[in-house]
Design brief:
Helices cover 67% and strands 0% of the residues. By secondary structure, the protein is mainly α. It has one domain (3-94). Helix 3 crosses helix 4 (62-83). The longest helix has 22 residues, at 62-83.
């Protein structure tokens, strides 16, 4: 399956009125642990993308943009305190590759 087809499948799933995040999470939780880690990295990368000031947004996705920015800011504050280093951390780059 090509990436464009995969993205279409995901957006079709999201667009259904019967979207059930709990069911999705339960099924994802049964996948191989390394795949779960890679999926988490992908989710973090999406949040980082949405948080970026260059992310194209309007009123329909403004809340996603603002919340993503807040999440990244909070993550950076936590990591800077934990490591006593003043750098910009990226959650997607923080997970080890197994």
């Amino acid at each position: 399956m090509e990436l464009k087809e995969l993205v279409n499948e995901i957006t079709n799933y999201i667009n259904r009125f019967s979207l059930n995040p709990d069911e999705f999470n339960e099924k994802m939780g049964r996948q191989h642990r390394t795949l779960q880690q890679s999926f988490t990295r992908l989710c973090f990368a999406w949040i980082e993308y949405v948080a970026d000031e260059n992310y194209p947004h309007d009123l329909r996705n403004q809340a996603s943009h603002e919340i993503a920015k807040d999440m990244i800011k909070a993550y950076n504050i936590m990591m800077q305190r934990r490591h006593e280093v003043d750098i910009n951390w990226q959650p997607s780059k923080s997970l080890p590759v197994i």
